[in-house]
Every structure is written in C-alpha cells, then in structure tokens.
Amino acid sequence: MITERESGGSLFERIGEAVNLPSRQRPKAALLQSVRNNLRNVLNTRSGSCYGSPDLGIADFNDESPDSMNIRNWMVQAISRCILRYEPRISDVVVTTTAEDSHAPLDLRFHIVAYMDFSNRKDVLEFDILLDNHQHWCVG
C-alpha cells in the first residue's frame, strides 16, 4: 500500500512546474523520478530567491563559504542541509565528494546516498550530482 507521502509529488510538481510522468510508469520508478526532479529543482534554486522560503536552495559559494573551510566540505554540508529540509521523502542523507578527475580538477561532483520508505520497506537511493559550467546542478 502506498502512503500519501509516497504518492504525493514534490512541491514543484504539485504546483505544476514539473513535467507529468507517464501513467504507465511503475510507482517506484515514478517516485524515484519525482525525487530526482525535486532535487534538481531544489538544488538549482538560488538561496534568497523564494520569498516564501528564503533559505530554499544553496547559497552562492563565492559569497557564503567561510575562509577557513574547504569549498568541497562546505558544499557537502550545504547540499545535505538543503536535501534534508526540502525533500521529506528521503532520510539519512550522506553526501560525499567524488574523486577529483585529473582532467577536470575544478569540477564539483558529489555522491548522495539516502533512504526512502516505499511499501513499508527502506530502499537505498543513490544519486550523483555535478555542478556544470553554467552553475546548474545535474542530478543523475
């Protein structure tokens, strides 16, 4: 049995900004796609741009990161806080940096492991995210 929390889409989907999923898609796959879309929307929202929730999104790390902290460590904390606050369908979020690519050492890549309740079972979710050249988060 799917609970109301599992069947409800993200805030962005409920207000009509997300693309409708095909009805033939399996419920678990549809839920995973909904979470992925919500993460993409939440992470790409600039902090302070939403009047109803001014802390929605991630602050620009050029303005906000403390001098004493490594930028990757600051981003791990910011991403984790954002996900835990604005994606209630997942829990126990662990964000880690991925190994730096020798060809692109300035790329900001992260790996997310989280848990989601589905049909009274805890399933593990894994996502990779990358900050692209246009400063948009790509969620894969």
What does this entry look like structurally?
This protein has 140 residues and is α+β, with helices and mostly antiparallel strands. It has a single domain, classed as Nuclear Transport Factor 2, Chain: A, CATH 3.10.450. Helices cover 32% and strands 24% of the residues. It has helices at 4-7, 11-14, 27-43, 61-64, 71-86, and strands at 90-97, 108-118, 121-131, 137-139. It has a four-stranded antiparallel beta sheet with strand order 1-2-3-4, with helices on one face. A hairpin with a 5-residue loop joins strand 3 (121-131) and strand 4 (137-139).
CATH topology grouping: Nuclear Transport Factor 2, Chain: A
Estimated share of beta-strand residues: 15-25%
Shape: globular
CATH class: Alpha Beta
Largest sheet: 4 strands, antiparallel
Query: What is the percent of helical residues?
Result: 25-40%
SSE blueprint and pairings:
Elements: H1 4-7, H2 11-14, H3 27-43, H4 61-64, H5 71-86, E1 90-97, E2 108-118, E3 121-131, E4 137-139
Antiparallel strand pairs: 1-2, 2-3, 3-4
Summarize the structure.
The protein is an alpha+beta fold. The protein has helices spanning 4-7, 11-14, 27-43, 61-64, 71-86; strands spanning 90-97, 108-118, 121-131, 137-139.
